[in-house]
Amino acid sequence: MLDNYNLTMLTDYYEITMANGYYQSSVRDSEAVFDMFFRNVPDGGGFAIMAGVEQVIEYLKNLKFTDEDIEYLRSKNTFSEDFLEYLRNFKFTCDVWTVPEGKPIFPYEPIVTVKGPLIQAQFVETFILLTINHQSLIATKANRIVRSAQGRPIMEFGTRRAQGSSAAIYGARAAYIGGCAGTACAIADRDYGVAAMGTMAHSWVQTFDTEYDAFKAYAEIYPDNAVLLIDTYNVLKSGLPNAIRVFKELKPKKMGVRIDSGDIAYLTKKTRKILDENGLQDCSIVISNSLDEYLIRDVLLEGAQIDSFGVGERLITSKSEPVFGGVYKLAAIEKNGELIPKMKISENVEKITNPGLKHVYRLFDNETGKALADVITLEGEDRPESDGYEIFDEHAVWKKKRLKNFHAEDLMVQIFDKGKCVYESPSLNDIQNYCRDQIDTLWSETLRFENPQTYYVDLSKRLWTVKYDILNKYEG
Length: 476
Known about the structure:
Layout: H1 13-23, E1 31-37, E2 48-49, H2 53-61, H3 67-75, H4 81-88, E3 95-98, E4 104-105, E5 112-117, H5 118-123, H6 125-148, E6 154-156, H7 165-177, E7 182-183, H8 186-192, H9 202-207, H10 211-221, E8 226-229, H11 235-250, E9 255-259, H12 264-277, E10 284-287, H13 293-301, E11 308-311, H14 313-316, E12 327-335, E13 338-341, E14 358-365, E15 371-378, E16 389-393, E17 396-403, E18 406-410, E19 413-417, E20 420-421, H15 428-439, H16 444-447, E21 457-459, H17 461-475
Parallel strand pairs: 6-7, 6-11, 8-9, 9-10, 10-11, 15-21
Antiparallel strand pairs: 1-5, 1-12, 2-4, 3-5, 3-19, 12-13, 14-15, 14-18, 16-17, 19-20
Helix pairs in contact: 2-6, 3-4, 6-7, 6-13, 10-11, 11-12
């Protein structure tokens, strides 16, 4: 999709006014470091899931200002001709690191880092944020829903409820990363291989003279996957008896019934009992209708008999918390050939940032394989060693813990080296499998839907010292 449409100008206008200002000032040729991070996990969860990196890569590969772009900017009577000529010959030359798609991520740690010429590193902010924010939000929500289903497949059914075409397509992609089995979005199957799934609408049933005629016609056309929607009129008095009649007459290879309304727990228990009494133990029961992780969890606790779920609007829009909230902040600026750490200081403690070009490690217990903590260090520091590494809470430094018998893994991978892409995106199926495996490294306490255990993301002593020296300098 990005190959067919130039998205370079998909940016906040102030990115361009700042770029023009940088170009005409003394910092024009400076190098800079920017970090993307987020402050809160959606829905009060214990972790989020990284997604959207492949689209960021395609965007950065195709950054180019067209003649049409230049003429538009010239018409604003705001930008110098020298700057417009710079844009005409624009070439992306930054280094970029990201957390791989599918990996669990936590607040305040860098998940994207861009280092390079100030104008370039600043300009790409908008697209990086909108892409990672959206797909990480949907992948995170999808995974909550998938986990609530306890191994039963979740189908993403939200295409018509998404906020626009891109949200539907990339939302389906992100939902698959989060663990969904498939999507209602056909173009997501064509472009990304997310299996397209679906049965029929109520209009199909209403089109025929009788419900039985509608079911019979569908089963004759699709004998390999005859899933019939049985709640158009009355589930137990009409839909289910007609479906059973068709199944017994035609004996399709795969059969199922779908219920899209009513009391899910009650109807599915009754439906399962009646199907079994008619020798249709192989007939599956599919449920849809404004589902989320809490409703799914609750009906299963009530004994609902469900084989799979179709989840629409509350997944594709992350209705319960529709904003991921990632931000993109300056972390360092070059001066006289040296990168000077920079940070945002605020009376709101949660808005204070971490300075410098950083490295992030995830520490894993060697016995259990579980993740113990993430540690943010300054570039050039030694990798945390397992012979007794001390972590501490930066806001309550007396809270310390000494870790032993662990190994440290890099959290981020480099995707661009001086503007050249050096990373090959895995297949979407591999990303989904990677996501599942990585979530298995988290403790069950972190996986809780409500009041999860806070996962440690700590600063190295050196980074903590640099940060608080800057705070003290400006406080003074």
